[in-house]
Amino acid sequence: MTREDHPFEPDRPPGRPRATTHDELESIGMELFGRFGYENVSVQQIAEAAGVSRRTFFRYFPTKSDLPWGDFAQEVARLRSTLALVPEEVPLMTALRRAVVEFNRVPAEAIEQHRARLGLILTEPELIARSLLKFQLWREVIAEFAGRRLGLPGSSFLPELIGEIALSAAVAAYREWIPRHATDLPTLIDTAFEAMTDLEGLEHGTASALARGIAPAEGSSR
Q: Does pTM top 0.70 for this prediction?
């Protein structure tokens, strides 16, 4: 197959320096996924576009499916550190709500890449399978914190239940945010936690108030 047979050109664009960091490789990979589709881009093509070897790619990412997650281990460590600093007087669910909101706050210039990243993770079959492992790490941090507060092992039923509930609230917010460019992800997550901690209240008027709080700006579209 010649280069004319396929729209993908693996060479680096003129002037692009060789990628030498985790973030640079991630940015190049996400750009290629956006242009050609996740399934149509190989590790070799990402490495060539970045001007590095496959060995260098695998030094930063064990598999192609790890790339959209970025440095997730570092992010999970950040979540753990954030929770470790929460004063004891802050109620459990309030602490989790604030920590998960902050965990999902990204700089304005990174919002669209974050949206593309979550869109891939939650729709591509290979990445959905990978998410079982990645999200488990996230849930464990939540469960550990809940266990400390409840005086129970983090691996016991109630802490694990809280971890599952927190993850479900976050993922529901992600799914709502991805197509709605006029909405704010931290606001959606905050709203999800607020609704989750008072589910009975949704039947008595709070549902419509919460929905108004996350409505897109006038004139925007999903």
A: yes
